[in-house]
Design brief:
binds adenosine monophosphate, 9 helices, alpha/beta, 17% strand, 3-stranded antiparallel sheet, 5-stranded parallel sheet
Amino acid sequence: MLAQITKRFFHNKIILLGAPGVGKGSYASRAAKALNIPHLTTGDFIRKEIAEQTELGKEFQSYTSSGKLVPDKLVIDIVKNALNNEGKNGFILDGFPRTIPQAKALDEIISIERVINLTQKEEIIVQKVSSRRVCSNCGHTYNLAHIKQDGIDMPPLLPKIENTCDTCGKENTLEQREDDKEEVVRHRLKVYREQTEPLIKYYENRGIVRNFPVTGGVKALLPQFLELLKKD
Ligand code: AMP
């Protein structure tokens, strides 16, 4: 089904909003592949700098480890560079903007066509995020939990071969992110409510926001998600 997508019917300057752990990365990576546009994620960029222990990485770590946001100026510069280098023919932004000043800075560079707001109950997010595992070699994400409650059915996302990453083939590399521990997740959700949620209104005024309740696994829901990226 993905191969049949005709790009001209779809928006291609896209933002994904939603609480941390709601599944933005899972949808963004698959939709970006289907539309053949880059998936730009500030979280991955920040984690890469931290893993390499660069000066910038050390500064980032002092914020991320306690669930705080990195200062606007630093992330805005990252996104400006990424859009200049790879975003000329469209992009899906995942994890940016996260504050009103970031959204305003983005407005000065480019005109966003579609914002998808992924929604989910906080308690389910906490369960899901604390069961998330990430390949320390390539960043591919898995989930150990099968969440089945309140009409929601989210099967686990497990590697095809136990303890082996599907994407890079390395063994025993699945780890829990430091900031996926429950107390940090709860703090990240609070920061989300205070600083990021106001962005929904910010973009709603332009009529470009579509809400997407995450009621199941990404494999089952991807076609519905892609529908929301279609031009009206
Ligand atoms: P994520 O994987 O998107 O949840 O990002 C992980 C962490 O990186 C966040 O908890 C923040 O500390 C930081 N981060 C990522 N994107 C941004 C952003 N747009 N603004 C500020 N901090 C960010």
